[in-house]
Specification:
TIM Barrel; about 40% helix; globular; 12 helices
Length: about 325
């Protein structure tokens, strides 16, 4: 029997994947979520409830979340950026509602079409109240938490104030999202240490984007600073990063399988079976019909003995 996991991995591929895989079918989204649970993932950012007119890939959200083979101890999250989306989400089997807010005024208006003040004093409180009435927990995705593609580096004091307000409102968990993928390990530690000093009763998570290839090292820096919840996506499935429009679709998020491998190699128990998560990565590639980002599958293929050059074969 495996010991208790030391970290929690939140996989967002069932929700982020359809952006990268526009032809993905409902049954494939369900299969992906089920495979993640079979591998040991205990929290899945599964669906979004934004109006299908805006995000057509979310049109089947209800069917997906109500059809997965949910396992005991698994939390299913649904993203609801506004009150209408929240009402839609609350009529499904989701356990947790995800709300959104940005670390900068410019990106908040670009992302949600409203000011930070309106998000904090109207939209998010209304969603929190509705969730509490239905016994659901709330997670805030704090986008552009480190860097804003419009305004540059987000001041730590501004972030501290925003995190404090979200905690005061009753948010259970806050995910710090590096939206453009520009943060470095030193900045990660500086930010996380400042937030840890608040000693809030709200869990902190990190959601790094692999735009500059620092996703794994930033995750390790966050772990060293005290973070124990990490957002990832199988094979890095994602859309295209804000601020990096020419980047290949599917390579934005930190690959779940790579993060699991890294931490397990360092002796940190993830609670996820490495062979099973590799099979999930294979499933994702089968659905995509092409090779996706992530190193674990490539490495495993390279180290099959028959793939070694003859010159390296042992006599």
């Amino acid at each position: 029997m495996k010991s208790v996991a030391e970290i929690t991995i939140v996989d967002s591929s069932p929700r982020d994947g359809p952006v990268a895989l526009p032809k993905i079918r409902t049954v494939e989204k369900i299969a992906l979520a089920n495979s993640l649970m079979e591998s040991g993932v205990t929290k899945i950012d599964c669906v979004g409830f934004t109006h299908p007119r805006i995000r057509p890939e979310y049109a089947d959200a209800e069917k997906v979340v109500n059809s997965i083979d949910k396992r005991p101890g698994v939390t299913i999250l649904g993203l609801a950026p506004n009150e209408i989306a929240c009402r839609r989400a609350l009529d499904t089997n989701v356990d947790e509602i995800g709300v959104m807010i940005a670390g900068s005024e410019s990106f908040n208006k670009a992302l949600l079409g409203i000011s930070i003040k309106k998000a904090l004093f109207k939209t998010i409180p209304a969603i929190i109240q509705a969730c509490k009435e239905r016994g659901k927990t709330i997670r805030a995705f704090l986008t552009s938490a480190f860097w804003c593609q419009f305004e540059g580096r987000v001041a730590i004091n501004d972030l501290v104030e925003l995190v404090s307000k979200l905690s005061f409102l009753g948010v259970n968990e806050i995910s710090l999202v590096d939206t453009p993928g520009m943060v470095n390990p030193n900045q990660v530690k500086e930010t996380v240490f400042a937030l840890q000093e608040l000693k809030l009763g709200t869990n902190l998570a990190v959601h790094f984007h692999n735009t500059t290839g620092l996703g794994l090292v930033n995750s390790l820096a966050a772990y060293e600073a005290g973070i124990r919840i990490f957002d990832t996506a199988i094979c890095g499935l994602s859309g295209t990063p804000y601020g990096a429009p020419t980047m290949e679709v599917g390579s934005w998020n930190v690959p779940t399988e790579d993060l699991v491998y890294m931490f397990e190699q360092l002796g940190v128990n993830t609670g996820i079976d490495i062979d099973a998560i590799a099979e999930t990565a294979k499933l994702a590639q089968k659905i995509a019909g092409r090779e996706l980002s992530g190193h674990l599958l490539k490495a495993r293929k390279a180290f099959v003995p028959s793939n070694f050059p003859n010159a390296l074969a042992l006599n």
